[in-house]
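Milestone M4 deliverable, item 7.
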Amino acid sequence: MTTVIYVDKLLAVNLLISVILLLSASRLCGIHIKRKGLIFGTLISTLSSLLIFLPWENIFLLIAIKIITVMAIVYFTFFPQTLKSLLKSLGAFIAVNCIFAGIMLFVKFFIGQSGLFYINGTVYFDFSALLLILMFVFCYGALCLGEYLTKKRTKSTDKFEIEVSYRGKAIKTEALLDSGSSLKDSFSGRPVIVAELKSIAGLLLPYELPYFKGDYLNANVPETLKTSARLIPYKALGNNGLLPSFKVDSVTFIYGGKEYVSHGVYVGVITDELSSGEYRAIANKMLFEC
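Output delivered:
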């Protein structure tokens, strides 16, 4: 029996699927997707569904094109700045696709092949418009619920605004208090705040920024940072590494109705995003003791 594929339905369904998968991957890896990235990624993913019409005879060529397509989707969606963030976002996207594939197999088992097709690595639903709308509502509701539950894990009382002062400059940013963290400088014992580079960039000079973006393990420390910069060892989720940091003049914040001013605190700089905009820095309880 010949399968009739309607281009409008094909694009509409894969547009919906692309948005759901990309947003789910964003939640999984914790990297926020900007509107521009979501548009680019969805566009590439949706247009790639047209591969369903090509008469593929070489499976290896199909796999190669799929790999290139996935890499393009991840890159233009998340715009990763480091290899670590690229692998993180790529792994999350592949993971949600595997979950989606499992769900599709489950659905296919119950509804039969008359409504669900998988050709050239592309999913096509031959469902009624009403069912597609219901699918969208269900997926959107599930995504919103997941986002709500994720946000509930972070209590509002654990988030507060900090003001970081350095060389006569000051910036304010939202921070999360991680009571389980004890990150500190091993030499001085001073606490370390982990912050996104873009959130504290205003404290640094333009020519100092590349040091934190590039290969800081082999790069020369700028002369203006030599008295305050330090590589601080860290261990998180079984991973070991060195965190490029610099010692700031003071960190001021209000917590529990009381104002604190901490001196001699180090700010560890990362290029990845810590959350989806809820906070830009992570502090530990040692911040209250200095």
